[in-house]
Amino acid sequence: MGKQNVIVPDQWVDSMRASSPTHAKAAAVLSGSQEASHDDEYHKWVKQYPSALSNFDDIFAASKGIQIVMFLDYDGTLSPIVDDPDRAFMSDAMREVVRDAARHFPTAIVSGRCRDKVFSFVRLRELYYAGSHGMDIKGPSKTTKHTKAKRKGVLFQPASVFLPMIDEVYKTLLRKTELFPGSSVENNTFSLSVHYRCVDDKILSSLFEMVKSVLEDYPELRRTSGKKVLEIRPSINWDKGKALEFLLESLGFGDRTDVFPVYIGDDCTDEDAFKVLRDRGQGAGILVSDIPKETHASYSLREPAEVKEFLSRLVEWKRLPSSKNKYKDAMS
Question: What PANTHER family does this protein map onto (predicted)?
Fold first, then answer.
């Protein structure tokens, strides 16, 4: 996986069809032997990408004496995946644990969503927010001990020139998707998302071909895929990995070795960030998934509930007195 490539038409349609609701429902009707096979595959996979909860102490032993920085995806990581993307609400308990984490470590939300939309879900002013797959970055509006001497007001939008084009495509897709019940188009400001989670499998091919046809007039835009969603964004050398590097630079850790970035995400767009961490030889990439998949992450968590538990343990670990935590100075 890693860097998102433009998928050729036939492969694109086939890959989208394979993740359609009808196929997903059919795949869910498994015999006992098939379920056992899935479990066996997952257990083999998790040996390669071990649980970040089971290996918690090992992960942060590697961060001894250096600064931890947290990067969190939103959908499927801090909130569950839901049929209606406008109702992907974050629980109060999850919000509280993210707030606690941000008290101890610089923390950023990195999402494909519009930055303002993500903020409306999270509602924590002390965080960094990187929306539109990192193409719309803004620093905290609330000063913390981590941002007093930093560029807390940083605003970076590398794809601003594409705004009129994206708005034009949005209006076109909004009109054309009216013919496809269950589909919706989300304007993420610097990117677009065509959601098809609730679209009947019988009309998926026509929906995909329609989107492809619209984009033929806009070669400056590229399409990628996510969980039951088509992503449309500018063809520039920018992604969540680049956003991670930019935020580390903004925090003053760009070329430093005394930093331990932790990135938690669930989708293929997060692979760019996982790959950056691997290439830097720093930190830990944690994939949220309950099915085996190829990844550049080093560890795994099964679902948002485990993300919450991981963050809670991290906060409690920070609070432990030195006599009870041999790695306490890793959090300073």
Answer: TREHALOSE 6-PHOSPHATE PHOSPHATASE
